[in-house]
UniProtKB/TrEMBL annotation:
GO terms for molecular function: extracellular ligand-gated monoatomic ion channel activity. It comes from the Eukaryota. Residues 2-129 form the Neurotransmitter-gated ion-channel ligand-binding domain. The lineage of its organism: Eukaryota, Metazoa, Spiralia, Lophotrochozoa, Mollusca. Pfam families: Neur_chan_LBD (PF02931). GO terms for cellular component: membrane. This is Neuronal acetylcholine receptor subunit alpha-3. The keyword S-adenosyl-L-methionine does not apply. Keywords: Receptor.
């Protein structure tokens, strides 16, 4: 059986990470950071502000742990977002539509110890009430 099949066989994307995920006994620790790349637009008349940047999320999923010695020293894997659990995080002060971050075809990587790193690139369009004197 391949590592891919071993990891995702029976894996449910609808259940949050954790060994006792059905009982939610332990909180999920999610680290978050944001890196601003550039200001794309500032439209005072339409109260629109656009930035380009990316969030970086990190967490552990104990369901996706393996021993690299059993798989030719493989220490990292990559899957599409739709194949694994990702936190459902929305951007609420958007200009047009409220959407969840991410893209189901975007690649997410994780290590043999279950550590996920998710960096969904985003252009964030916000409502911005400008008061310029």
């Amino acid at each position: 059986m391949s590592l891919y099949e071993e990891l995702l066989g029976g894996y449910k994307t609808s259940f949050r990470p954790g060994i006792n995920y059905m009982y939610l006994e332990r909180p999920l620790i999610l680290s978050v950071s944001f890196a601003l790349k550039t200001i794309k637009t500032f439209d005072e008349l339409n109260s629109k502000f656009s930035i380009v940047g990316n969030f970086r999320f990190g967490w552990y999923d104990e369901r996706l742990i393996w021993n690299p010695k059993q798989y030719n020293g493989i220490t990292f894997m990559s899957f599409k977002e739709k194949d694994v659990w990702i936190p459902p995080i929305g951007y609420l002060i958007c200009y047009d539509n409220v959407d969840l971050l991410g893209d189901s075809d975007h690649i997410i990587s994780f290590s043999y110890n279950g550590k996920f790193t998710w960096v969904p690139p985003q252009i964030l369009d916000s409502v911005c009430n400008a008061y310029i004197m």
